């Protein structure tokens, strides 16, 4: 009897010890099924790349040092890679989702990305990086929140809103790719989408009837964090919200010195966070506008994305002309000066800096935790291509559980068994 009790206690202690050895930063898990759908963002039915049947795809919401696991199932008719733009991939370059570090995911196959967003914060997005697929969608937001012990350098917002803007063609990516391969120009986009939707009908001549547009509802007297990404393929866009200031607070993983803009040029691939205070009288809804830059505006008027900012106490629909954009088709000075005005806010080093939001915390962690290893081990589900294709193992598309996940399940079951032993002895 005493021997049984001793063995039970020994097993429990061993299990707890091993569990602590496996203790790590939390995991966030996502399942992505990438496929074609038919959609009409500009009123014309076309082939669009969706994730889990939606366009744009889901926003990945993580926290500094989380381990992100994304099982991507390729239901397209061509190879696929998903790139996590701005994620640093420390010691995991083969998870970056670009040719040269990743072999493509063949049709009807899957690949489980697993990487750590180590010492990062901020607003990013992901997109398919092969075959010009980004021109047909397949993109979504990627948020890395601060850890709770590291406060943000502004009051906690009342809401967090992701806005994806980008030029759009009614031709699919295959047709666009053929044009580029033939040495032709893409030409003028057919429009600009905001969160995968076409423009609000602010002008009966320029915008046809029946187009679905984005509406963002807000409460008066509150402050929202708006994360804006230019996910297009070729067009710089000027972003603005009628009658509202945009307080710039962060860009692609770095907090900025906070300053107000009435509009901001956002170039292809760029991401910005603004603080928007809903301090207007809500006599009507307000336009959210993304218009093309450095072009002849009289010819490109239809290449304008328009969404609606609606207060919960709004008294009517938005009407009238759109808020003005910078008028400098042949002069890049405004945009260049705007870019130069953005300053990073790293904070100052003090004795208490390790408890503040600034990057000294990240620097301290990365330097003290450095090892001689430059890369993590090759995953079991590695994809091989080219000269190494003979090393490829048969792919089990239903298998997407990480080694760490199986280990945790094993030790959980072991602890349950240990707990039950005294009951049945």
UniProtKB/TrEMBL annotation:
The keyword Lyase does not apply. SUPFAM superfamilies: Cupredoxins. The chain crosses the membrane at residues 407-424. Keywords: Membrane, Signal, Transmembrane, Transmembrane helix. One of its GO terms (cellular component) is plasma membrane. Residues 34-148, 160-313 form the Plastocyanin-like domain. The keyword 4Fe-4S does not apply. Residues 1-23 form the signal peptide. GO terms for molecular function: copper ion binding; oxidoreductase activity. Belongs to the multicopper oxidase family. This is Monocopper oxidase-like protein sku5.
């Amino acid at each position: 009897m005493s021997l049984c009790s001793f063995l039970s206690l020994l097993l429990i202690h061993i299990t707890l010890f091993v569990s602590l050895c496996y203790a790590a930063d939390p995991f966030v898990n996502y399942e992505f099924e990438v496929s074609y759908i038919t959609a009409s963002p500009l009123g014309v039915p076309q082939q669009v790349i969706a994730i889990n049947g939606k366009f744009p795809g889901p926003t990945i919401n993580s926290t500094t040092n989380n381990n992100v696991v994304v099982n991507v199932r390729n239901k397209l008719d061509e190879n696929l890679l998903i790139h996590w733009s701005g994620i640093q991939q420390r010691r995991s370059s083969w998870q970056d989702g670009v040719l040269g570090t990743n072999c493509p995911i063949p049709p009807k196959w899957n690949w489980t990305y697993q990487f750590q967003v180590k010492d990062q914060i901020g607003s990013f997005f992901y997109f398919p990086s092969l075959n010009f697929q980004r021109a047909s969608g397949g993109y979504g937001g990627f948020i890395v929140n601060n850890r709770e012990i590291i406060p943000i350098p502004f009051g906690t917002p009342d809401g967090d809103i992701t806005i994806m803007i980008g030029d759009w063609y009614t031709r699919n990516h295959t047709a666009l790719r053929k044009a580029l391969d033939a040495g032709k120009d893409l030409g003028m986009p057919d429009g600009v989408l905001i969160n995968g939707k076409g423009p609000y009908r602010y002008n009966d001549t320029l915008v046809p009837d029946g187009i679905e547009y984005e509406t963002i509802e807000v409460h008066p007297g509150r402050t929202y964090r708006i994360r804006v990404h230019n996910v297009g393929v070729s067009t710089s866009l000027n972003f603005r919200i009628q009658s509202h200031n945009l307080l710039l607070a962060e860009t692609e993983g770095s907090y900025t010195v906070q300053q107000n803009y009435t509009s901001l040029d956002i170039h292809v691939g760029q991401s910005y966070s603004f603080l928007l205070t809903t301090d207007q009288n809500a006599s009507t809804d307000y336009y959210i506008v993304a218009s093309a830059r450095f072009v002849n505006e009289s010819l490109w008027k239809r290449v304008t994305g328009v969404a609606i900012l609606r207060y919960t106490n709004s008294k009517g629909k938005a009407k009238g002309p759109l808020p003005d954009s910078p008028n400098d088709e042949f002069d890049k000075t405004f945009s260049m000066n705007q870019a130069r005005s953005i300053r990073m806010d790293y904070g100052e080093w003090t004795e208490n800096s390790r408890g503040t939001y600034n990057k000294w915390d990240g620097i301290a962690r990365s330097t003290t935790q450095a090892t001689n290893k430059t890369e993590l081990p090759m995953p079991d589900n590695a994809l091989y291509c080219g000269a190494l294709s003979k090393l490829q193992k048969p792919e089990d598309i239903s298998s997407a559980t990480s080694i760490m996940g199986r280990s945790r399940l094993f030790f959980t079951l072991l602890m349950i068994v240990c707990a039950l032993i005294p009951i049945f002895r």
